[in-house]
């Protein structure tokens, strides 16, 4: 099996978001992952990820994500991406959101990279 690069986590996230696959997004996070909320507070665990990502998916719109960098050190990697969410949401409201992330992922025994820390606005 070819080893996946750390930025494969971005590819998987992008694909799950575009498919509206909440369970797929949840599978990209370790069980006790830390997630920074829009107000700057940090929550941990799959329940927090589910709540935030369910709301994000519910917005609809066109989602794009471009990796800015991936720095690997052993089984951990520091990632950053630039993301945009634009269009008309499912509620008919205009969407124009964007951010630059700071993320930490860890390589799993099966070769996948899962999010340990996700800060969607961490590189603003």
Structure description:
Strands 1, 2, 3, 4, 5, 6 and 7 form a 7-stranded mixed sheet that branches. The mean pLDDT is 92. The protein is an alpha+beta fold. The protein is built from 3 helices and 7 strands; from the N terminus they run H-H-E-E-H-E-E-E-E-E.
Catalogue the unreliable spans: none
Helicity range: 10-25%
Order of helices and strands: HHEEHEEEEE
- Class by alpha and beta content: alpha+beta
Number of E strands: 7
Note the gap between the termini: 36 Å
Instruction: Write down the Rg.
Output: 14 Å
- Biggest β-sheet: count, sense, barrel? 7 strands, mixed
Q: Sum up the overall morphology in one term.
A: globular
Strand content: over 45%
Number of helices: 3
Instruction: Give the mean pLDDT.
Output: 92
Summarize the SSE layout with pairings.
Elements: H1 8-19, H2 22-26, E1 29-36, E2 42-44, H3 46-58, E3 60-73, E4 76-89, E5 94-100, E6 102-107, E7 113-119
Parallel strand pairs: 1-7
Antiparallel strand pairs: 1-2, 3-4, 4-5, 4-6, 6-7
Summary?
By secondary structure, this protein is α+β, with helices and mostly antiparallel strands. Helices cover 24% and strands 48% of the residues. The longest helix has 13 residues, at 46-58.
Q: What key attributes describe this structure?
A:
7 strands, 3 helices, 124 residues, seven-stranded mixed beta sheet, 24% helix, alpha+beta, globular, 48% strand
């Amino acid at each position: 099996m070819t080893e996946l690069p750390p930025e494969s986590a971005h590819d998987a996230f992008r694909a799950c978001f575009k498919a509206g696959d909440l369970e797929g997004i949840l599978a990209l996070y370790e069980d006790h992952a830390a997630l920074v909320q829009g107000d700057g507070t940090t929550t941990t665990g799959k329940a927090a990820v589910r709540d935030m990502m369910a709301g994000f998916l519910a917005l609809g719109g066109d989602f794009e994500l471009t990796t800015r960098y991936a720095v690997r050190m052993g089984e951990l990697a520091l990632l950053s991406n630039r993301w945009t969410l634009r269009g008309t949401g499912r509620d008919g409201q205009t969407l124009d959101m964007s951010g630059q992330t700071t993320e930490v992922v860890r390589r799993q025994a099966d070769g996948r990279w899962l999010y340990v820390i996700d800060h969607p606005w961490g590189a603003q």
